[in-house]
Amino acid sequence: NQSLKLAVIPGDGIGTEVTAEALKVLEQVTASSVAGGAKFEPTRYDLGAERYLATGEVLPDSVLAEIRNHDVILLGAVGGKPNDPNLPPGILERGLLLRLRFELDHYVNLRPSRIFPGSVSPLAPHILEKGEVDFVVVREGTEGPYTGNGGALRVGTPAEVATEVSVNTAFGVERVVRDAFARAQRRPRQKLTLVHKTNVLVNAGSVWWRLFQEVAAEYPEVTTDYMHIDAAMIHMTTDPGRFDVIVTDNLFGDIITDLAAAVTGGIGLAASGNVNPDRTAPSMFEPVHGSAPDIAGQAKADPTAAILSVSLMLDHLGLTEAARTVEDAVIADLASREPGAALSTPEIGDRIAARVAG
Amino acid sequence: NQSLKLAVIPGDGIGTEVTAEALKVLEQVTASSVAGGAKFEPTRYDLGAERYLATGEVLPDSVLAEIRNHDVILLGAVGGKPNDPNLPPGILERGLLLRLRFELDHYVNLRPSRIFPGSVSPLAPHILEKGEVDFVVVREGTEGPYTGNGGALRVGTPAEVATEVSVNTAFGVERVVRDAFARAQRRPRQKLTLVHKTNVLVNAGSVWWRLFQEVAAEYPEVTTDYMHIDAAMIHMTTDPGRFDVIVTDNLFGDIITDLAAAVTGGIGLAASGNVNPDRTAPSMFEPVHGSAPDIAGQAKADPTAAILSVSLMLDHLGLTEAARTVEDAVIADLASREPGAALSTPEIGDRIAARVAG
Ligand SMILES: CC(C)[C@H](C(=O)O)[C@@H](O)C(=O)O
Ligand SMILES: CC(C)[C@H](C(=O)O)[C@@H](O)C(=O)O
């Protein structure tokens, strides 16, 4: 009869709408026997564009300290209107989302991709026929080009120089590569692909390459493969079924997971976990999509990615049966949706919650 | 009756095979009246994996000086067998290809994409029906994450730290953005999309954003648009017809142009120009594909991308009618290919050369 402290950050726009449905499903699944009596005590944190615009606060240290004191975090989406002059780019991304990932040491950014029933992939039948698409990207989450290292000189003048420094440590690369190998070993196909750009980014590339080879020696059952990020674009669109587990750096992972979401039928279904495998701080689960200000407040957003993020969260917490129950409910719901029927956000949440209730 | 000095770098693997066909077509078009009497004097430079493995030389300074003394360069492809222990990653890429781009100030890396007749796109009909796909990526070619700045400490140890520094200057960004606006203005749709990751790479992002806005003010006819690189993955696969001209940095450009080549039906048709618009040094034209050691020497490579690179080269030299003649011949040839018929490399070259001859 575990009691788990859950920090909920609904965020902005459709973030709040999809989070409500995710919590609805979570409540339903914990009420059922599959959760083995686990209970969640949610605490809501209002963070995001709205709070920043109203108060100037992004993520006060005291709030971060409180959030840290939870077992797990569920996030909707943060972000204001595009090009809002009061909201310079990066303020929320660097100050809130990335700060959480970095401070809570979310070094495994986990992004599964598969083609769900009823999904409309932009890929042609002759591609999809090549094989089932079901892979997971293990994106490094705490270093690479995302560190915020770098700066700018003579800003705003014709002599401006701006740098971005990608920082790659053996420590940081080895731990995420290890996690990826362990995941690949547990999957039926036992295949791991490293994606990088070792032929140009030779310094970063060589540390990734070296540690990938070193850890590979400990996992003889896992078949390994290497692909440059540009070549990965081609394989992802012409034969996505070839992938099983992909491990890559923070920026390449950002790019390839959006492509993966696109080819498997849309960002509305892409869930993610920002995982701290060492459990020194709470992990955070969130849909890959953003706050979509253009459709906010209209109950048009598909909460499925947020609900699948709940499933990833349950799995991370060891509530495997509950995780599977949510995922199965989502799959059954997707399979039963009438093509072209526009369901509202709460309708989808209700349908999935009802299936979870059994 | 111009006489133009052409440096030819066939390179390795299929590079030499496709270059032979490109030169065949070039010879044919210059023999015809559309070239207005222009003649090319080719000098061949043996550079690439083979030379490096035989001599240890990548690009001797004296050879670079000779190449510089040409009007234009045609390159096939360079690269040896994958994972050849005698050919560490980056040696040829950084030492030859990127060195040429940087030394000859190829700041506009031009990569047109369209769906040619008979192309088999991996995208589904419901995507392709949205609109004709015909866009060009203007990829910055002389800075960004490709500078080779950065380094590594304690290499090979558990305490290794490796950095890659993306360098972005107002000078470098403004000139490529200007070139992109000028190109967009000359095209019927007059649309330019900036692709970056301003919400995370805030230093580099802000210099790109600022100069994009500044130059935009001088081109009121051009409609502008901004997209994060991750979002661009989604748009490129779900609605590639929306793009007209894209301007982006060196690394994002590398990634997005391979995706563009994939969605428009394959890297076998993707041509590129490494252009020095100020003409302070020769520009270089090359297919986007690599040396494909796996199919080298079998006359299986499609020389179309190399032949289309000749068309880009002719256009750059002001030989507009000759450029169009080559392009039209390629299109007519593609339209006439029997689906599934495997033509050899010289067969395709012959067919296109014959059409050029009239
Ligand atoms: C919003 C942004 C900072 C974020 C990222 O780049 O990681 C997003 O694109 C994602 O993939 O979670
Ligand atoms: C081979 C490599 C250095 C090169 C690049 O990254 O620019 C290639 O991928 C390209 O796009 O021309």
TrEMBL record, chains A, B:
GO molecular-function term, one example from the UniProt record: magnesium ion binding
Sequence ranges assigned to domain Isopropylmalate dehydrogenase-like in this UniProt record: 5-352
Pfam families tied to this protein: Iso_dh
Swiss-Prot/TrEMBL site (Important for catalysis) positions: 146, 197
Cellular component aspect of the GO annotation: cytoplasm
InterPro entries listed in its UniProt record: ICDH/IPMDH (IPR050501), IsoCit/isopropylmalate_DH_CS (IPR019818), IsoPropMal-DH-like_dom (IPR024084), LeuB_actb (IPR023698)
Cofactor binding comment, as recorded: Binds 1 Mg(2+) or Mn(2+) ion per subunit.
UniProt binding sites for Mg(2+): 230, 254, 258
Chief place of localization: cytoplasm
Amino acids binding substrate: 101, 111, 139, 230
Cell location: Cytoplasm
Residues that, per the record, bind NAD(+): 290-302
Gene3D superfamilies associated with the record: Isopropylmalate Dehydrogenase (3.40.718.10)
Complexes and interactors: Homodimer.
Family: Belongs to the isocitrate and isopropylmalate dehydrogenases family. LeuB type 2 subfamily.
Record's protein name: 3-isopropylmalate dehydrogenase
Native source species: Nocardioides marmoriginsengisoli
